[in-house]
Structures are given as structure tokens and as C-alpha cells.
Amino acid sequence: MKTQPLRIADRVFTSRLFTGTGKFSSAALMEEALLASGSELVTVALKRVDVTNPEDDLLRHLSHPQFNLLPNTSGVRTAKEAVFAAQLAREALETNWLKLEIHPDPKYLLPDPIETLKAAEELVKLGFVVLPYVHADPVLCKRLEEVGVAAVMPLGAPIGSNKGLLTREFLEIIIDQSRVPVVVDAGLGAPSHAAAALEMGVDAVLVNTAIAVAGNPVAMAHAFRLAVEAGRLAYEARLAAPRAHAVASSPLTSFLD
Amino acid sequence: MSFRPIFEAHPWEEVKAGIYAKTAADVEQALRAPKRTLEDFKALISPAAAPYLEQMAQLSQAATRKRFGNTVQLYVPLYLSNECQNICTYCGFSLDNKIRRRTLSSVEILQEAAVLKGWGYDHVLLVTGEANQTVGVDYLEQALRTLRPHFAHLSMEVQPLDQDEYERLIPEGLNTVLVYQETYHQEDYKKHHPKGKKSNFHYRLETPDRLGRAGIHKLGLGVLIGLEDWRTDSFYTALHLGYLERTYWQTKYSLSFPRLRPAEGMLPPKVEMSDRELVQLICAYRLLNEEVELSISTRESPAFRDHVVKLGITSISAGSKTNPGGYAVAPESLEQFEISDERSPAEIAAMLRRQGYEPVWKDWDNALMSFPSQ
After folding, report:
1. Is A187 annotated as a binding residue?
2. What is the CATH number of the domain that holds B204?
3. DSSP letter at A10?
4. How close B353 comes to chain A (CA, Å)?
5. Per the database record, which ranges form the Radical SAM core domain (chain B) (predicted)?
6. For all residues of chain A together, what is the average pLDDT?
7. Does B357 contact A at CB distance below 8 Å?
């Protein structure tokens, strides 16, 4: 049974599982796991690749037609640095798609909302398809939408923490308000977390650590693929419960019957 | 604001007594704690933790894997000069050592760099002694300019500098500075550094503060193990790290734990640290701090390095020479200290792969710091 495809900017995705490329024990294993995940959008840290080397090990293992590259700006601390890095990535990797991540705090890697908004505004003007990594902050997500980002990527939990949807209440508001796709990025530690995210109406998820660091990354990638498909199917099939409004009895209006 | 008042609030003998008073119950509590404190750290580096080494190693391995994945970064030192105005009792470059002094020219630096590039390196650590007349900020700036087009990541382990000097070097591509206190034992520090600018304990102690204020991307701390009681010295390292992380929150941190190696004209170590104890320290650092990078050099033996990379280490050097010109220009000159692991970078990379780790040669890009922040 097929789920609805996801459109972001000019591209249509069958898979709602986006993936990362870090932390794998080898580039070959990464390639195998990403193929098993069915992912069509794969994020790559500019700092990890040698863009001057056509034989770069990481890029070589990502050259499959189904993988669209999503360069990220991991390592920058300011909007200025992000814009510069983005331009370099666009030129070197031949894509105007960008995962904008500005986390000046190297310990918890939490995104800087002020610099992110500044950079997003400028990058959109420069013609980038911007997917910003942000806190699950509904107001910030609206502000980003207004400057023209293609999707928002709020975190479920601190990156790499595997803690799941700790920000659920705020994600629900973001989903409710958003006019661009919502991609939960960071913190998803198990396929069940990914399924839960899709069930609640998140458009896609981005997973890296939970796959790369699993005992068997290829099997785990496949498990995430199934979970994302199941979660989306469930969302489209309209979950029966729980409901937001009480329906059991009508003590205040039954006298009208 | 600096680390000094915090340091002074922790008298050496009191800290030392506190560590040695820790019990098995303290260790067990530390192992159970979801978020560990400096008191937990004291328990984990205490003699009472020795029977818990396997458990510590397992926790350390799991925490490291979660944060850093199945990867280990490779770096290599590039010694630029052995000129030095300091007397350090343990160092081959000490002023009172009658050795041939050499400072590499830009042309020689490039010859050395070509060898390192040929081995696959993209991260390089520039090392000098302390000779401000010839190897001062102008020289370092020139060296960074010479190397920047060739490497993705430049680190420096040189004499402590003033804040404005760091501010001058960072825009030239300086990403990381390593500055080891050697020992936090103030009186012993004086004995080991009797002459030269390095004898100023407090100037060195406040170097990380100057680097933090200058906006350095990464800062490496450590003590030289063998000068004083390693447990007490390591407590101060952890105390320093915690202060720096909270104060300069945009900076990344790394720790090293060099054990004294034989060097020309040096005294034997006062304190010997066993392999078991070094593993205990590495694991204790990881259990205290899941994000800090832990680095192991070629000072350690092949067998030890092969095992310890799985227990919490995140970066490793290979093929190192500790003499200026050692790679190409003057391979026969005297080394700062003898290395123990002489395997080539390719052999180390193969060893990592066999153990299920991807050797990472590049994890930075000069393009990311074209605009230094503030």
C-alpha cells in the first residue's frame, strides 16, 4: 500500500525517511545502510568531505541516483559563516539544497535561533532551498516560513541523544500551524519514535545516530524504513483514538433529545 | 574573570586527601549516577575504583560510541622548531641541553607538509619550543599562512600567547590550541620549570581563559603524567575543563594524558602510572564528560593503543616525528622525546578498520571559519 508522496520545493519524495552520513564504521557500511533505508535525501557535512577530491571516499559511496545530497553547515557558529559555507557547498556539490545548522555550542549542538533566522533569510534570497535545523519553537518556525524556507526541521530531543519525541507538545503546535513540511531532525533513537512522529502528522524524519551506531546498521535502517512507512500509513488512515474532544456523553444537552 | 580563584579555592593537599578517601560505595554511586559530578570523578580516579575497571570501560565505550559513533580522527604533529629559552627538567628541547637547534623555513615547512599530505593527513598539529625572538607570533602567522592552503584543520602546541596574539592567529586558520599545564602543583611546577617564561605558573594557568576570550574553536588541556600525583593533577584538569565549558561555551574541548617518555638529559619520572591506571583515567574522563574529545599519541605502545582506542579515545596520531624536519628535511636530528609506536599512518588506519572504526582524516573545513566570530 502506497503512502502519499512528499513534496519539498521542486522535489517529490516517496520515502519520508531522511538520513545522515556520520558515525558509521565505514563508508561502505554507510552506503549499504542508506540503500536499505530507502532514503532519497541524505545529509552530508561539508567539513567531512574533500570537495576538491573527485575520489572522496564519502561522496563516492553516495553516488546513487536515488540519493539526493543535502549538504549541511555543521561547524559554523554564525550566520555569516553559514552563508559562506553554503555557497561553497552549492558550488562543490552542485545542489542549491541546504540543511542550515548553526550550533555555536559544541557540547550539546543546540541550534542558535537568532543566527539561523538571519542566515535563512539571506540564503533564501540567494536562491537556496533552505531546511533549517531548529528548536521545536512554533514561533521561530513561523518566522522561518515567512522568510521562505522550504521546510522546518525541529528537533525531537538533543541531537544524538536517542531520547525520542521529548518536544511532542511543541511539535503538535508546529504541525498544526505550518504551511511548509515539518521534518523532525535529531533525537529519534528507535523506529518506534519515528513511527510515532509520522503518526502525529510530521511529514518526514531525519535519522543518523540510531542507525549508524546500531549493532547492525543495515537491519536498523530497514527497520526505520518500515516504521516510517507504517507511521505515515497510520496517519493517512486516520487514527481512531485518542481524540482531542470528549464524545462519550452529553450531560449538558441531553435534555434536548 | 579567570580560572585562578576557582583553582585557589581547591588546595592541593585537600583535594588529594579527598580522592584517596573515596570508598567502594562512592565508586558504585558514581557508576550509577545518570549525570556525574566532580565528586563522582574523584571516586572514579581513586584507588577504590580499581576493581571496577571493566565496568567503567564498558560504560565508557558505550558513551563514546553514542556521541562519536564508530569513528576515530587522525592527526599528526609537525615540529617547526626546537629552539627554546626554557629549562624544563623532562624535555629534550630544554635550554640547557646541548643539541643542534633548528627552525624550519617556509620552504622546509612545505617539504615536511608534502610528506604528511602524501600519507593522507588533513589535520596537522604545529609544535614549537618557546623562543619568542625567532619563533614568535610573526613566525607562527607565517607558518599558518604557508600551511592553510594545504590542510583542512590547523592546531598549535606552542608557547602561551597573549589574547591579542591569539586574535591575530585565529583568522589565519588557527582552529585549535593545545596548552598543557604540565602540573597544577604550584611548587613542583617551579622545580620543573626553573628558568624561562614558562616558569610563570599563573600566566600558563590563565592561557585557556585568554584563548576562550579570543574565540578559539577548540582548546586542548592536560597534564604531563609523571611529574606529580596523577590523580590529583587530573582532578584539576577536570575542574579546569568544567569551568571553561561553562565560561567559553562556544569552544570545543579535548584532553590528552601524556605519560613522561625518556628524553635526552631528563630526570626519571617521579610518579609512574601503570597501563591499568591510564585506562582508569581515560574511562573516568569519559564518564564525567561525554562530549570531550580524548586523544592518544605515539608516546604509547602499539599494543596499548590498539586496545585503548575502543575505550573512549576519539583521536589518534600516527607516524609522528618529534624533531623539526623529521619527516623530510632532517630525519636524523634529535627528537623531543622517543615515540613508542612507530607504525605508519596507513598501518594505524588499517588497525582501526579491523576493529570496526572508520579512520577520519578530515572533519573540518577552512571555509567554515573564513569569518571569525566577533
Report:
1. yes
2. 3.20.20.70
3. T
4. 8
5. 70-299
6. 92
7. yes
B238, part of any domain: no
Is B66's Cβ below 8 Å from some Cβ in A? yes
Does the annotation place A215 within a ligand binding site? no
B362 contact A CB<8A: yes
Task: Say whether A22 and B358 touch across the interface (CB within 8 A).
Answer: no
Query: For the segment A194-206, what is each residue's pLDDT rounded down to a tens digit?
Result: 999 999 999 999 9
In a domain, residue B216? The reply is yes
Show the low-confidence residues of chain B (pLDDT under 70).
Answer: 262-267, 370-374
Domain that holds residue B325: 69-224+246-271+290-363
- What are the pLDDT digits (tens) for A125-140? 999 999 999 999 999 9
Q: Which residues of A are catalytic?
A: 99
* B243 and A CB contact within 8 Å: no
> Is the pLDDT assigned to residue A245 strictly greater than 90?
no
> Is residue B14 one of the residues assigned to a domain?
no
pLDDT of residue A246: 60
Q: In this structure, is residue B165 part of a structural domain?
A: yes
ipTM score for this prediction: 0.76
Confirm if A15 and A38 have CB atoms less than 8 A apart.
Answer: yes
Q: Which CATH superfamily is domain A6-238 in?
A: Aldolase class I (3.20.20.70)
pLDDT digits (tens, 9 = 90+) for B138-186: 999 999 999 999 999 999 999 999 999 999 999 999 999 999 999 999 9
pLDDT of residue A159: 85
- Write out the three cell numbers for B224: 604531563
pTM: 0.87
Number of domains in chain B: 1
A143 and A154 in contact (C-beta within 8 Å)? Answer: no
Check A50 against B362: CB less than 8 A apart: yes
pLDDT given for residue B374 in this prediction: 37
Flag whether residue B69 sits within 8 Å of chain A, measured between CB atoms. Answer: yes
Q: How many CB pairs under 8 A join A and B?
A: 84
Q: Which of the four pLDDT bands, split at 50, 70 and 90, describes residue A181? A: very high
pLDDT digits (tens, 9 = 90+) for A117-175: 999 999 999 999 999 999 999 999 999 999 999 999 999 998 878 899 999 999 999 99
Contact B370 A22 (CB under 8 A): no
Q: Say whether B369 and A81 touch across the interface (CB within 8 A).
A: yes
Residue of chain B nearest A72, judged by CA positions: B368
